[in-house]
Amino acid sequence: MAISSVLRRALLYVPASSQKFMTKSLSLASDNITYDLEDSVTPANKQTARTQLRDHLSSLSNKPASIGELAVRINAVSTPYALDDLTTLASAPNLDAIVIPKVNSASVLSFVTDVIRHAAPQRHSSDPTASPLKLIALIESARAVMDLRSICAASPYLSGLIFAAEDFALDLSITRTPGLAEFLYARSAIVTAARAFDLPSSIDLVCTSYKGPEGVKRLEEECQNGKEMGFNGKQCIHPSQVEVAQRLFAPAEAEVEWSVRVLVADDKASAAGRGAWTLDGKMIDAPVVGKARAVVAKAAKCGMDIESIKAKWKDQNPE
């Protein structure tokens, strides 16, 4: 499964109970749009929202070019709604991923994977050219954090982990604070597990503030904090949050330019048989070059003009 190209700097929740919001979502520029059947839909509206979402996806001739991925957040497998969510939507056209809430154990992912194999076998076939339906797991409890190893190994279609801070705080009877120190262990465990199991996405908690300058400042601070911890994306609950998340979870221009310089100079150093060298007085060795390659690759996925930067620094030499 080619999951390395997945980019989820922003994962925007859109209530499937609102046709107006679903239609509007198609005009947005977002790495991921996740239509929600869980928290934003009342029990009385679950069936209507599910059918409405199926029709919405079926009405699209193609996924909009400005959207990287269309997903659905189903209801928890412990509810009476999850099985109908899966059997109704697994074979829906234009659906790229399923976000699964309350993944407290590996058995949740095993169940979802088995249902998809029966309900939409073409999406989980052995054909290497097939486009598999990716799974993204919401980590919401102490049990889930303690069971991350088995969760990450539970399905070959798992493509990312999401930290659900509010449910985690409820489970531990703790209060969320602006500094987020109370979530340090859980968030670190999630990004470490995602990296250890080569999952492309580790998506950080929702920023509940989004209105006015203070809301934007809080979102920027949380994105920067999450990026420093190792997260590569952010859950969004309002379209206004998407641009900020995608900008801050993309490599900074200065970082990209430095990385291009490293790679240009490294090609010349390698040709000269030099395994370690310096650039701007800084030691450059294999780990630094590896990081530079990763930064440039991600920048290219984010739409940055790497070739122009390479042309600018084509004469860069190792010191």
Characterise the protein shown here.
α9 (212-229) packs parallel to α10 and α11 packs across α12 (286-301). The chain is built from 13 helices and ten strands. With 319 residues, it is of the alpha/beta class. A hairpin with a 2-residue loop joins β9 and β10 (282-284). The strands form two sheets. It has an eight-stranded parallel beta barrel, surrounded by five helices. The chain has a two-stranded antiparallel ribbon with strand order 9-10. The radius of gyration is 21 Å and the shape is globular. The model has no long low-confidence stretch (mean pLDDT 94). The two termini are 41 Å apart. The longest helix is centred in the last third of the chain and has 19 residues, at 253-271.
List the helices and strands and how they pair.
Blueprint: E1 10-15, H1 19-25, E2 32-36, H2 46-58, E3 70-73, H3 82-89, E4 97-100, H4 106-119, E5 134-139, H5 142-146, H6 148-152, E6 158-163, H7 165-172, H8 184-196, E7 201-204, H9 212-229, E8 233-236, H10 240-248, H11 253-271, E9 277-279, E10 282-284, H12 286-301, H13 306-312
Parallel strand pairs: 1-2, 1-8, 2-3, 3-4, 4-5, 5-6, 6-7, 7-8
Antiparallel strand pairs: 9-10
Helix pairs in contact: 2-3, 3-4, 9-10, 11-12
Keywords:
319 residues; alpha/beta; 8-stranded parallel beta barrel; two-stranded antiparallel sheet; 10 strands; 14% strand; globular; Citrate_lyase_beta/mcl1/mcl2
Separation of termini? Answer: 41 Å
Q: Total number of β-strand segments?
A: 10
* Neighbour order of strands in the largest sheet: 1-2-3-4-5-6-7-8
The biggest sheet amounts to:
8 strands, parallel, barrel
Number of helical elements: 13
Element pattern in H and E: EHEHEHEHEHHEHHEHEHHEEHH
Multimer state = single chain
Residue share in β-strands: 5-15%
Report the mean per-residue pLDDT as an integer: 94
Structural class by helix and strand composition: alpha/beta
Helix content: 40-55%
Unreliable residue runs: none
Shape: globular
GO molecular function, one term: magnesium ion binding
Domain HpcH/HpaI aldolase/citrate lyase: 9-239
Binding site for Mg(2+): 140, 167
Binding site for substrate: 73, 140
